[in-house]
Amino acid sequence: MELKSQNDTWKPRIVAFFCNWCTYTAADLAGVSRIKHEPNVRVIRVMCSGRVDPQFVIDAFVKGADGVLIGGCHIGDCHYIDGNHKTIRRFAMLKRILKDMGIEDERFRLEWISASEGEKVKTVTNDMVEKLEKLGPLGLPKKFIAWDEEMNHLELEISKPKEEIEHV
Amino acid sequence: MSEKPKVAFYWCASCGGCEESIVDLAEGLLDVIEKVDIVFWPVAMDFKTSDVEAMADKSIFASFINGCIRTSEQEEMAHLLRKKSKVVVAYGSCAHTGGIPGLANQFAREQILTYVYDEAPTVTNENKVRPEVEHRMNGASVTLPAFRNVVRTLDQVIDVDYYIPGCAPTPKIAQEALQILLSGELPPNATVLAPDIALCDQCPRKDSKPEEFEYHGFKRPQWTDIDPEKCFLAQEIFCMGPATRGGCESLCIGGNMPCTGCFGPTCRVKDQGAKILSSICSALSAKDKDEIEKILDSIPDPLGTFYRYGLAGSLLRRNVKLPVS
Ligand code: SF4
Ligand code: SF4
Ligand code: FES
Predict the structure, then answer these.
(1) Which pLDDT does position B2 carry in this prediction?
(2) Of A32, A140, A144, A157, which alpha carbon lies 20 to 30 A from B316's?
(3) Interface test with A, best of B83, B315, B319 (most A CBs within 10 A)
(4) Is B139 found in the same domain as B71?
(5) Are B142 and B280 part of one and the same domain?
(6) Is A86 in Cβ contact with B282 (below 8 Å)?
(7) What is the pLDDT of residues B211-234, one digit of tens each?
């Protein structure tokens, strides 16, 4: 069956916003020291986790991400002093909004990973991949197309008796 | 003498406030009527759809459509007016960003119908009668428009040339927009015909808006003695001003109520709700998780607050878990 084979090949896609000073360096380290982690993560380097506008997160989901991960310096270590404080506050509210919009908790995650914690990059991403695999695809681009299909039936519906329909 | 440009007004899923706002142009309306030929305006004048169908394509200069799109009939009318008009203007919040009816995108179609036809306290419907798209009786058939699963902004259904924001658009905004359109020098496509700056920039209270501020919690305006001079945010009353387009002459602020965001975002913002979330929440006073959650609890219904007028037109559009049919 087509659906099944699609599911067999599906791998969750994670968009990861990593801060330049800590988590990105850690991910780099993980790469250099050949720590193996799941290859499903598309990393976007930002200067600080506090630079991640909630619009970026929502946009990533809209464009087809199954999960979004933000990685930043541990509290107290932010290169810009309190950038990551902004991050936790926004993260908490964005979680509420995403939940109200039907996006599961596990799809959006925030982790503090310092430059030396290459190993943690691996555990976090592997764990997230595992959870997303259980949840299955979010698949918003396809969903949006499916939503709008109901409009394609317009022709059919309005080709019925026309003369008598009063527009109020 | 050259012919006057033909214009049409139409309403879709809306409350009627936008129609009212056209009447509110008062003497301004006479000005408008002098300059144009109104060829379709079902709320105020006796026209039929067949009158529009009989018109040549693109023979209407501009159609002003208010309301969002919820039914097949509204889709049909939007397509018809698109075909007959050179310019289509989304008039008011609902057509522009989804408006209040767009908040229904939090619920499934069936949830809405069940509540409205079975459960609402004022409803008695013992036979569980539901509207049907087609009903046959004694060999005859009567039809109703289909109620869609999704509430849509006008530009999610047809191409839209211009937007006039507001719930409802103010007479000033509406009149200026009409003048621009009638001047013959059309602005670039997809322009929102209102100033492209945040409301805060035009707000009479902006001098008291704090640069650096920490919110310890938000007060509900109805339970608060509001200082009529001071920025709402400085009083820890939630205000959409920072993420909302100006141009409304700060109407709500003038009435000592905070902005709820009806003019939509400026052109640099894709998602008004995410924008206000970002600017307000980053300035909470709390540092640890529990304290943060406690402050966030002081904004009941954040979705309905941040996306009051913009849910249907937002990036996510609708609760993504809801069924399509
Ligand atoms: S936040 Fe509200 S009250 Fe304060 S300046 Fe902006 S619009 Fe005015
Ligand atoms: S203050 Fe805000 S809600 Fe009130 S009219 Fe202006 S934009 Fe709309
Ligand atoms: S620089 Fe790493 S979180 Fe701010």
Answers:
(1) 62
(2) A157
(3) B315
(4) no
(5) no
(6) yes
(7) 888 999 999 999 999 999 999 999
